[in-house]
Structure formats: structure tokens, C-alpha cells
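Hi F.,

I've been meaning to write this up properly since the lab meeting, where we talked about keeping a consistent format for the predictions we share between groups. The idea is simple: the sequence comes first, exactly as it goes in, then the C-alpha cells exactly as they come out, then a line or two of notes. No screenshots and no reformatting. I'm using this chain as the first example so we have something concrete to point to.
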Amino acid sequence: MTRIIMTGCNGHMGRVITDIVNEDANAEIVAGVDVFTDVANDYPVFTNIADVNVEADAIIDFSSPKALESLLEYSVNTNTPLVLCTTGLSDEQLKKVDEASKKVAILRSANMSLGVNTLMKLLKVATEVLSDRGFDIEIVEQHHRRKLDAPSGTALALADTINEAADNKYKYTFDRSQRREPRDEKEIGISAVRGGTIVGVHDVIYAGTDEVIEIRHTAYSRAVFAKGSVDAAKFLAGKDAGMYDMSDVIA
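Output, unedited:
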């Protein structure tokens, strides 16, 4: 049984994770942390993680970058592994995460979906076969109209996976509107679509002469990210200090 502290427990993702863990015989949320406490929970909820007095095997964080410093301090002081799902961290905050990972196990990934991380493994194989055989590579991502950043962090992570498999020979192109020239064979085009309530769609296109390979991941609900974070917590429990990501979970 993996005992979990859920930070951001009363937010949207926190509620989804709570429901998933309630159906999981091998995991239990033993405490939550949230500034909003007017939600009924089956576990104690604290407004500050420093006040948590319940032992746990891992922390799942879907809160806010503002809470990072106290979260890292608690994780290190109590030697509780941390699954860090909060996005939008600054470069300075990322450095603090790296420093903390020298003292406690931390898992951080651009996308917590098991499917997306399996896709990354597939892209490594496809790129090793196709990148030197004249195939052009494009990434198209789609998200809901309220998403602030473009392209998505996942799209960039997919591009990085491809580039690493190709010895970093590619550059990224985000806009061709001001160009009137043929496509550079050493570029990866990355396009973003924003509209409606699309949870997340990522297409990777390998376009060769007379044949095209398309690999797609579609997220139909945010539950896929919640499920991945719970699997990550189970994996991280008891691990030595260090920086981990979802590729370690699905290895």
C-alpha cells in the first residue's frame, strides 16, 4: 500500500486523483494540502504542508509554483519522495528542484500520461530508422482554447526526444509565414491548434517520398494524467535520492 500526500487536493486534478486512488487497492491518500478547505474529504486536509503530521510514502503535487519552496523543504526534511506535476516553474525554481533531488527522490515529467511516455519510446525507434532516410518530421498539437502556452510542453518534449535520437541535428521551426523557401531537411516543424474543449492531441508526422507515417496520442480526459501520477507515486516510493521521470516508470 502506497501512502500518498496530495497537494492541491481540492483542485480539479486533485479531485480526479482522489477518485482514482479510492478505486485503487494498492494506494491511499492519507493527507491533503489545499488553501480551500470547504470540500468534504475522507482524509485530513491542511492549508500548509509544513503542518502535515501524517507519514507517507510519496507526495503528488498538482498545486501552484508559489508552493514549491515549502513543498521541497518538507519533502527533503521528511525524506518523502515527490511526484512534481505542477507546471510553469521558473528557471530558478527548476534549479531548486535539481538541488533537492540530490537529497530526496523527485519525479518530474513534461507529461504524466503513460500513453505519451510510451509514444516517446516509439519515436526513438522511428527516428533512428527514418531520420537519415529522407523523412521530414512535423509535430501538430491541439489543446483547448484557454491554454496559455504554445506550443505545449509535451510537443516540445516530443521534439526533444526525436532530436536526441537523431544526434541533435534538428532545429525547431514554429512559424513559416515570413519564409518563401523550401523546407530545410534539418528542421522539425511544430504547430499549435487552440480551440473548444480539446484536452490534448499530439500528432507526429514522418513524411517521406511516397509514404507517410503518422503517430497520434489523444487524451479524452485529464484522468490520463492523474492515473500516470498515481503510478509514478507507487514507483517512487522507497527510491533513493535522484531525479526521475516517467520513462523510468514505464521502463
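Notes:
DSSP finds seven helices and twelve strands in the chain.
The mean pLDDT is 95.

If this format works for you, I'll send the rest the same way.

G.
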